[in-house]
Amino acid sequence: MIRKRTDFSRRALKSSWLTSTGLFLAILLAACGSSTSSASAISATSTSTSTAAPVSITFAKAVNTEPFATIDVAQQLGYLKAAGLDVKIETVAGSSVANAALQSGSVQFVFASSTALLLAAAKKIPLLAVAGINKGESIQLVVSNAWIKAHNLSISQPLAARIKGLEGTTDATLSTSDKSIMADFEAQAGVPVSAIHEVSISSVSAQLAAIQHNLAQEFLASPPNSSIAVAGGFGSVLANSKELPYLSDETDGILITTPSYAKSHPAVVKALVGALQKALTQMSQKTPAAISALQTLYPKLSAAVIQSSLDSIAFTPTMQQTQVGWNDALKFAQKTGQVKPGEQINVTEGSLWTNQYTG
User: Fold this and answer.
1) Phi-psi category of 245—alpha, beta or left, where left has phi over 0 and alpha has psi -120 to 50?
2) For 99, phi and psi rounded to 5 degrees?
3) DSSP code of 205?
4) Dist. CA 217–CA 182, nearest whole Å
5) Residue pLDDT, tens place only, 276-292
6) Across-strand partners of 91?
């Protein structure tokens, strides 16, 4: 995607001595700790052939999924470096941990779900979605092969029959999104919440281990983690979140920061979004470069498996969010009980989300 030039890049059209002066001022301001230092560094990096110190940021992924791997693809394909960013990428134990890290200032950006942001809003935690990654849920319910065989379950059966067949199982949950999806599966099947036990798990590898050792019988995961489970013989996909209402256009994965950081560092936000847009374009087109980058992250998966898992994700390369998408996200969170009755959450543009950095 071609981004609009910022004021910083337009300044590069001036004479060469002015460009050199701008670079000197960027370095000087960075040394002095000015609030405009990151913007100046981004400007100098994007408008001069000289080497300037990149802006350092820390980025957290709530879980390790292919949509959230966009930041890794942007890193490997050089888009972050070209944008003047030095990004440290971390994977944390779920969206609650990621959002807490944002609040503490230990990270500056997070990939998490729309549900996680709505829960933060319900608690009056000031966070802002500055871009979208994908729409609709791409989460799959993986159930142990032993349980499927013992209870004669099949993905060809009606959804209600499949979920009822899970009564008495333990669900290994990793994130807020997992709990939301499972709650809606139960509601659709008329299965009481108490019929399926939940246990919190700290990582995808722990989920796989729980299934392998029969400590849990199912878990929810997005590609490629669901593909890893199936390829490893841990279980089979018994249901897809797309079988649930409100999930075709729902805003799903989002890029989150704090309103104060976005206001103080608009050039950094725009530079990051621009780099991610390039990576999303590669991933949505399933280019060899994108698949190769993802194979570095998931070395046990073949190129064919990665391409297949990418097919199940509705990426939004423009990273623009929609009012319809956020309306559906709120409906889903309310339907599954994540947003409680009486909790008033404003999801109009400019409240929890904005498109001002995606142009």
Assistant:
1) beta
2) -70, -35
3) H
4) 13
5) 999 999 999 999 999 99
6) 61
pTM of the model: 0.71
pLDDT, tens digit, for every residue of 308-351? 788 878 899 999 999 999 999 998 888 777 888 888 899 999 99
| Phi-psi sector, 58: left (phi>0), alpha (psi -120 to 50), beta | beta
Pairwise CA distance, residues 249 & 329, whole Å: 9
Backbone dihedral region of 191: left (phi > 0), alpha (psi from -120 to 50 degrees) or beta?
beta
Q: Residues 6 or more apart from 196 whose CB is under 8 A from it?
A: 166, 167, 168, 169, 170, 171, 182, 186
Q: How many residues does the chain have?
A: 359
User: For the chain, which domains are there?
Assistant: 1-53 (no CATH), 55-135+246-359 (3.40.190.10), 140-243 (3.40.190.10)
Burial 158-172 (b: 16+ CB within 10 A, else e): ebeebbbbbeebbbb
User: 261: which 2 tokens?
Assistant: 């950081």
What's the rounded Cα separation, in Å, for the pair 56 and 62?
20
Instruction: Give the distance between the most distant pair of CA atoms in the chain.
Output: 76
Q: Return the structure tokens found at 339.
A: 């947003």
